[in-house]
Amino acid sequence: MFYKPYGDYQVGETWTSFGRTITETDVVSFAGLSGDFFSLHIDDEYARTTQFGRRIAHGMLILSISTGLLHFEPGIIAAFYGIDHLRFTGPTFIGDTVHVKATITDLQDRRENQGVVTILHEIIKQTGEIVITGNLKLLLNRVNYA
């Protein structure tokens, strides 16, 4: 989605990514990298006793995977600017397939050569359920510096 310079975007533009299936390897690798070994993610017996009835993927894993589903063009993206109003609204299970729906909601000039693009970032699984939502902000260049 972010392959053209700031100034070439309009509020209301929408883009949908391809899908990505969440695997056991994703969950185990993320636990090892992050140090987050919370039982809901790695302990089948414990997870069966929860409201989810089985293990769920880490919310931060799904958020991280979602950034890989967006197209970031080197030279266009100057920096990740932040996320506002981030919410984890539903579980993602091993075997679920997620995609991102991104809608531009705001454009703000920053410097002469840059601006901040705000997108409604919705991570949706194959059932149509939104599992994570937030307002992702990116600092974009007005020209491609690659």
Properties at a glance:
Thiol Ester Dehydrase, Chain A; 146 residues; 37% strand; 4 helices; 6-stranded antiparallel beta sheet; alpha+beta
Secondary structure blueprint with pairings:
Elements: E1 14-16, E2 20-21, H1 24-34, H2 39-42, H3 44-48, H4 59-69, E3 77-88, E4 97-109, E5 114-125, E6 130-141
Describe the structure in brief:
InterPro entries: HotDog_dom_sf, MaoC-like_dom, MCH/BMMD. With 146 residues, this protein is α+β, with helices and mostly antiparallel strands.
CATH class: Alpha Beta
The CATH superfamily bears the name Hotdog Thioesterase
Number-wise, the strands total 6
What oligomerization state is this entry in? single chain
The CATH architecture can be given as Roll
Outline the biggest β-sheet.
6 strands, antiparallel
CATH topology: Thiol Ester Dehydrase, Chain A
User: Percent of residues in beta strands?
Assistant: 35-45%
Give, in order, the helices and strands.
EEHHHHEEEE
The helix count comes to 4
The amount of helix comes to 10-25%
The low-confidence runs, each spanning 5 or more residues with pLDDT under 50, are none
Secondary-structure content class: alpha+beta
Describe this structure in words.
- The model has no long low-confidence stretch (mean pLDDT 96).
- With 146 residues, this protein is of the alpha+beta class.
- It has a single domain, classed as Roll (Thiol Ester Dehydrase, Chain A).
- The chain is 21% helix and 37% strand.
- The chain is elongated and about 55 Å long.
- Strands 1, 2, 3, 4, 5 and 6 form a six-stranded antiparallel beta sheet that branches.
- The chain contains four helices and six strands.
- This is MaoC-like domain-containing protein.
- It comes from Sulfoacidibacillus ferrooxidans.
